[in-house]
Amino acid sequence: MKQAFIKLHLSILIAGFTGIFGKLITLNEGMLVWYRLLITTIFLFLMLLFSKKMIRISLKSMLNIGFVGLILTLHWIFFYASIKASNVSIGVVCFSMTGFFTAILEPIINRRKLSMKELIFSIIALCGIALIFHFDTRYRTGIILGTISSSLAACFVIANKRLGNNTNFSWNITLFYEMIGGFICLSALLPFYLIIFPVESFIPSGLNIFYLVLFSAICTIGLYMLQIQALKSISAFTLNLSYNLEPIYSIILAMIIFNESKELNPAFYTGLALIAASVVLQMLSVMKEHKKINTSSPNI
Question: Is 243 in contact with 98 (CB distance < 8 Å)?
């Protein structure tokens, strides 16, 4: 159990580095995500090939998984665009809006009753974002892009959950076809994207290549592997609850690596406090519900 918790929090720390790599890699967000998809797909293909776990799936399953991969790709593009237009702290704070969009979109997509409790907690987080947006005009573009990113992240979580309920593929097979789907779609869109946002070179520098390889291997494949290993000993409930620490890890890392504390004003910290309050209230609510379920169903 101790090893499982170590792996869980290591995976959260790694997740915190995703924003850091987004800032370190000097490619624009479109090229960054394209190379991340490409390198991750190659790594996964080699892993599946050498472990002899590569399987063929139906065209219908491939299209369904590929579509989820497209949503993930769009989320990544807007997330890194948010960071490059502002900073890591703004990008990850906006990512905290995922809960708000999930609370709104999941009942609509899955046709279930809207939870007023989830909505209230999410509105508190929304007030935090609005406070930062209103008082810190420097990062409005980054906040808008980050908000779009969090809405796409919510769509990805909902779609991935439905995908998992309807298929029984292993995590590496699912991730492999998600990466392929995202890569093919982005490759088709990239020529039009580069007309609007031209780049000086398509080939990344040596340092960018080094960061991209680490980014793909550790922050994508390594992250998934640690999550799966941790879930063998701990519940999905504990994992999801613990991942509320991810934005905090990212902000601390950004302050250490990029000295971002100098760029942030009191409005940011007040907004962050509101977002943190919504996360804490949500955690307490979920823990209370989880305790009720365990009390009423002691054999589960």
Answer: no
Report how far residue 275's alpha carbon sits from residue 271's, in angstroms, rounded to the nearest whole number: 6
What is the rounded CA–CA span in Å between residue 300 and residue 294?
A: 7
CB 152 within 8 A of CB 105: no
pTM, two decimal places: 0.86
Burial of 113 (C-beta count, 10 Å sphere; 0-12/13-18/19+): exposed
Backbone angles phi, psi at 144, to 5 degrees: -60, -45
pLDDT of 297 > 50? The answer is: no
pLDDT digits (tens, 9 = 90+) for 172-216: 898 999 999 999 999 999 999 999 988 888 889 889 999 999 999
Measure the CA–CA gap between 30 and 32, rounded to whole angstroms.
5
Q: How far is CA 111 from CA 107, 108, 156, 157, 283, in A?
A: 5, 5, 17, 16, 24
Backbone phi, then psi, for 142, in 5-degree steps?
A: -60, -40
Alpha-carbon distance of 128 to 121, in angstroms, equals 11
- Burial category of 61 from C-beta neighbours within 10 Å (exposed 0-12, middle 13-18, buried 19 and up): middle
Q: What's the mean per-residue pLDDT of the chain?
A: 84
Residues 120-141 as b/e (b if ≥16 CB within 10 A, e otherwise) read: ebbebbbebbebbbeebeebee
- Which segments of the chain does DSSP mark as H helices, in order? 2-24, 29-50, 59-85, 88-95, 98-110, 116-135, 140-166, 171-196, 206-216, 223-231, 236-242, 246-258, 266-296
Question: How far apart are alpha carbons 92 and 254 in whole angstroms?
Answer: 10
Q: What is the pLDDT of residues 115-174, one digit of tens each?
A: 777 778 778 877 887 887 776 678 889 999 999 999 998 898 888 888 877 778 888 898
Give the residue extent of every domain in the chain: 2-296
